[in-house]
Description:
- The protein has 537 residues and is mostly helical.
- Helix content is 74%, strand content 1%.
Amino acid sequence: MINWHHYSKNLPALQFVLLNIGLGIGHFIAVLSAGAFLPMLPYVAGTIGEGLAYAVWGQSNYLAAMGAAFLIARPLMKRFGARNTAIAAYLLFALSCCDVLLSTPHYTAYVVARTLQGFSAGLSIIPSLFLLMEQYKPAKHKFAIALWSFAAFTPFSVGPALGGFFTYIVGDWRVLFVVFLVLSLLVTLCIGCFIPNNPIPHQHTSVQNNKHHYYPLKSRVLGFACVFIGILCLQGIFNLGIITSFSSATDTLWIMSAVVVLAMWLFWVINSTSRHPLIELSIFKYRNYTLGLLLTCLAFMCVQAAIVQYIIRMQTIEGFTAWHVGLLFLPIFLFSKPLSVVTQHIIHRGYDPRFLASLSFLTFAITFWWIGGYMRPATWQDLLWPQFLEGAALGVFLVAMNSVTLSNVPESLQLQAVDMLNGMRTVAAGLAISISDIVWDRHVVYVRDHLLASDSGNMSRFLLQHHSTSPIDKAMLHQVQMQLVKHSGWITFNSFFQWFAIAFIIFMVAVWFINPLHLVHTNKNQDLVVESLGEEP
């Protein structure tokens, strides 16, 4: 029996346990909302009365806003305190859940609601972790971080299964948002009741003029506003490419591109001239950080694109239900978290993280080549086995690449460096959804044209085989069309995963161009925090 008095700093045991449960639930719903939505996308498209491409906008914008929120969460926490920031984040999450439920008849309102939901989810993670650690005795911080990091890989494993359950078994994807709405309000109540509203550490009163001095926020908020607008417009450019050809919307694309350039230029001016910048650009002078950030984002884009296309196409091409597709991702959880712990232990023992990173890239390559090599249609049981290997690769990947990327960043910049890493990696995941959809649509048309080419004879052979003595009618042409859609989808699906495999072979080689230098930090608790935050989606 655990004696929670040995862990709690100030709270009674019952309140301490309830607070742990509340913050844990809050963390779970923040990260699960990203993965759980993926199996729902075909059903969401039916509910909002738009095509699948339009439903994807909500998911890509969610990740873009979530990534941007990582950049402003810590400054807000320093200004208003972790308690107030977390309460505001969960209230905004609850409000956005309500907006999603009410906005399905109005597409624009639905996209805005999902964007707000992503922003609130990203905003909640950092202050919630610090609230949890504040309630633990310093000697027990390692235990607190271990509990917190348990949810790290659930968006890739439990999330799709949870979304599939509510979509197919319960019968309405919106019920999950009702559950998230109730839970987020309970988490808010839990934080408000059990954590006292202590004075904000960065607020003090001047003895000379008796004025309050706050953590400076004005330039940081202005810089963040520019970054946020730029990220959403950049995401919007690729979202537009999903539903139309770039050549048919040149005016809109030019306007959005101009807004991106202007917003980023304004951010550069504000950030460079301010005494209190949002981002310490000096962290990019460290070669490992710059190269590691780029490689991590590219690799994570491939992982995210693979997961999204797998979940969507297994439903639209193979005919699996959202529930059965979601269940295929549960094996990822079996190896991901245990191997991440083992990887951290190995790295702490002094082993080169580049070797572990290259090993994870090789495992991803093998996994994706295996998935891309199946003869379609494949059975559900056959599709299950590569997921175990993908979970192992994912568990090693994030820990090893975080260690490589942050290896020579000074201790004073570590927290901001990991916030930037999380933010850019999550923004890249949002871009990956749209870019992979664009490439899918173009390639599947190319494959379909090839199948219909006059020199291939595929159409003629199909007609002669099935209707050699029957006149051509509409029913037969519809059957031909459905076969073309299915076969072109299978070919494109396998091609996609073979491309991902080749990309990870390139990443496996590229990681060795990063310097193996490592700094030893004196603050072990900060190292644990950085490692835990580095595993966030």
